[in-house]
Each structure stands twice: as structure tokens, then as C-alpha cells.
Amino acid sequence: MITLTAVLLLSNLTPGVAQSRQEIRGVWMTTNDLDVLKDRAKVDDAVTQLGRLNFNSIYPVVWNSGYVMYPSAVAQRQGIQPFVYKGADGHDILADLISKAHQRGLFVMPWFEFGLMAPETSELALNHPEWITQRRDGSQTSISGAGEVVWLNPFRPDVQKFMTDLVLEVVAQYDVDGIQFDDNMSLPREFGYDRYTTALYTKETKKAVPGPTDPEWIRWRANKLTAFMAQLKKAVRDQKSYAIFSISPNYYDLAYKYHLQDWLAWVRQGIADELIVQVYRPNLQSFISQLSRPEIKETQQKIPTGIGILTGLRTNPVGIAQIQEQVRAAQDRGLGVSFFYYESLWKAAPEAMDYRQAGFQALFPSPALRSITTVQPFELPKPESIPTLENSQFSLPGSL
Description:
three-stranded antiparallel β-sheet; globular; disordered C terminus; alpha/beta; nine-stranded parallel β-sheet; single chain
């Protein structure tokens, strides 16, 4: 009891600023959480605890390692999934989570974690080699946090259709509140040297394809990715008019310069409905430096904006004191938060569960309910709104 009281008192010494009803208080549920997701009783306990501690959003993984986490006719038609993820008693994992979460007032936005990447040994990569892009030297793999992967070519119409079909299947099949894409809905700048993309670039620009860091080549590919995301957003909204189109990228300089992910353009063009920037840094000063960036401040004026905070990995546990410091820093700047990932909130953690939960209760002492708002139909951006190298409105926070 003494330690629980200490957590509460310490957390209340520096109260955060008042938040709006649309404050993001989320958590990602990853493949590491499958033990929870497959068990109805554990799911019920999870959403009960999240609701009690005044969380309001869950981002469950539905696309990982080239496979979907729900029964998918799209995946079956493509011949990329010889199995179906099911709950312990054969039930639909995603449907069960959505039903239980909605009973407790939590939003559920399925998370397409792997975006455009897939393991090179997956059925997706093996069955569709023409979908894979490459580096200038012809190599096709890169090392990611998920190991060695290949990248789907986001400029190919057949790849765009496949991703769109998967997303619309989830939106139509389940009572979701939205969908989410993260930093993997991108392409490392070293890629894009496949025959299809280089021919398209030469046709449109009348120029030879330059090196991977060339500003015009980066901008051309980033614009193509933005155009695809705009089409995807329109398809989602046409299917479900109130669905939230959520993005969770890396900080802007890294996202644009190294992964062609111009998420600031996505915000400015109305593609993104909420933004959660991943800032997984243990050093508080380094963490805070990203919260005050001009692109964060600009986004806050337009859509709900939050910061992704690491609550621990199996090999890297994070103490509650660090988590509280970072959440308070975000709250003091009017930002929401989302935690990576569920099991490390208070189970796979360095402190006792009761102690950790008391720490989160102190951070969120009262509810911040999310609400479905009336939305305007999404219209594709006009050509003049697309960023160019000469358009100062879309100037970057740093130089290439």
C-alpha cells in the first residue's frame, strides 16, 4: 500500500494540461499478445483493465509477416495463407476483441503492422515475385526489426489493389472504428529500382533514374506513395464514412528522408485522421526534443495527435518511472499517447502488476472518451496541392 500511494503522489506532483475529448490513450496489441488474444477470458480481463484505467483505444495487429490474423477470403484467393488464426475455441479473434472492447467504450482500430514488407520466405513473396521491388544493385532484402524482409512495390497497381482489398475486407467484415498503418507503410529509399518503377519514372520525367538520395527521385517516389494512401483513404471512407484513418510513423525527418513517407503531406491533404508518432527513446531530453517539432504542433491543430511510448520489450523492460515521465511530457504539450505493447504494460514488466496499474491510473485519473464525429466525404487531393521541390509550403524540417 505504501508503494502504491507513493506512485500516485509522485505522479500528481506535475499534473498535465487539460485534454480534449479526442485525447488518444491507446495500446498496441502485437503478435507477442497472441496468448491473450486467443483466450476469451483473457481478452475480457484485458479490456476490463484497460477500461478501468481510462484507456480509450486498442490497435490490434491484423497483418504481420505476410499473413492476416483473421479469416480472409482475399488471402485465400491469392494463395498466400494456408492457415487461419483462430481463438482457443475456434472463434474469430478480432470479432471477439471488438465486441468486448465496445462493451467497455474502447475504440478498436486494426493495425496493418507489416505494411508493405514481408519475409522473403512467406507465401506472399514466393507466390508474387513480380510484386517485390529492389535496390540498384538488384538485391531485394533489408534488415528490419522483424528480421530480413522484402518490400512490396507500392507503385504497382496490382500491389495497391491487394493492399486495398485486405483493408476493405477488414472494414466491411468487422465493426471497426478505423484502421491504422505505421512506419512500414513505406519504402526504404534504397528501393524502387525494379524494371516497372524505373520505366515509369523515365516515362514521366524524361530523365534517367538517379541515385537513392537524389531529392527529385525521393520526392517523386514519396508523391506516388502519398497518392496511393489518398486512394486508400477514399476507398475506406466510401466503405465506412466514419472510419478513422490512423497513421503511426517515425519522426518526420527519418520517415521522409529514409522511407519516402511524407506523413506531413498526408496530414495536410486530409488523408490522416489521427497521428501517433513513434518516439521510442529512453533519454527524456531526446524524447522531449521530438515533441516540440513544428510538424507536431501543426498536426495538433488539425487532428488528434499522440506519441508512441515504449513500455518494454521482452529483452528490454522499461520501468514505470520512465513511462510516467514521458507520458507527462506528452500531456504537458497537449498530446495523447499510445503504448507499445499490451503485455509490457503490467505483465512482462520489472515491477509488480498492482504497482504498474497504479502508475497508469495516476496518469489517467478520469476518462477521456473518444467520439465518432460527423465527417465530410474524402475527396482526392487536387494536383496543385501535391508537394514539389519548389513548393515552399511543403518545406522539410531539415535538409536532405
